[in-house]
Amino acid sequence: MRTVSAYAAPSATEPLIATTIERRDVGPNDVLIDIKFAGICHSDIHTVRGEWGGQQFPLTPGHEIAGIVAEVGSNVTKHTVGDRVGVGCLVNSCGECTSCLAGLEQHCLNGNVGTYGAVDRDGTITQGGYSSHVVVNENFVLNIPEGIDLDVAAPLLCAGITTYSPLRHWGVGPGTRVAIVGLGGLGHMGVKIASALGAEVTVLSQTLNKKEDGLKLGADHYYATGDPETFTKLAGSFDFILNTVSAAIDINAYLRLLAIDGVMVNVGAPAEPLPVNAFSLIGGRRSFAGSNIGGIAETQEMLNFCAEHGFGAEIEVISADQINEAYERVLRSDVRYRFVIDTATLPAVGA
């Protein structure tokens, strides 16, 4: 075991604090990563505050990890010391079920292992990327292509794949009329990726405050959902709607914006239920679906896609001692558009 510096939540009701955590020794199939940057995802806040169920504390969150390979195990063939790499929301799965064999590790039938707050195969509780180092099985380590800086690459490991996967799965491309609901950490990546795929992109946000940003990110149109006329004007306008909002919204109002055979996909994960009226689906043969992250191969595909199109996330880099402030700002939607922790600012072990 090795001791590394980290930030952790002592409980669901206390601020995160500087601490140390233990990482396992590098095994034959493991990669030790010197973490350089870690993104802050809204999921981190939901998890450490117990909004998605109870957790074992202390807990170090973070599943948007970018860094450099510092050591590899004797059997590792996919990565070498010095490689630029990332780790997303998964660090293990059974590797044997039909989902894993199909490259859908996020849907592992025997239970995948999340990057933090999950029970790993050895029975330990995983700890995430708000730390200086992490040890991960090589099969769950992604290569970050040249052309994407590590700081803007970190949020791609969750926000990027969470939006890329449904856009690809439902065949978004040239000629597709896409609406992105919410222009936040997820939404801004949805706009970038949908635009790069060749779709006609509309942002649906509560106000027009971020309209200039949305158009710069690649949106063709921008409407305020706080204006009731928006829902009248845009009725039946979209082939695909991606809802990135992590709060309860009137799903039925948005479903009516879909064209015949249109699909609305939820990637935001509010704690509250989202009631759906059957007639909102029946009229127009519409579909309401959900999507998680992507598998490892698709996540690598996403990273390569972003590199080919020359973009990463829009970020604000913070020091580790600003994490709690950043959490409150995320809840106020006061970030454009993802906080990223510079892990060089973590207190040294023993300091």
UniProtKB/TrEMBL annotation:
Single Gene Ontology MF annotation: alcohol dehydrogenase (NADP+) activity
Keyword entries, A-Z: Metal-binding, Oxidoreductase, Zinc
InterPro entries cross-referenced by the UniProt entry: ADH-like_C, ADH-like_N, ADH_Zn_CS, CAD-like, ER, GroES-like_sf, NAD(P)-bd_dom_sf
SMART domains attached to this UniProt entry: PKS_ER (SM00829)
The EC number(s) this enzyme carries: 1.1.1.2
Co-factor requirement: Zn(2+)
SUPFAM superfamilies noted in UniProt: GroES-like, NAD(P)-binding Rossmann-fold domains
Name used for this protein in its record: alcohol dehydrogenase (NADP(+))
Native source organism of the sequence: Lysinibacter cavernae
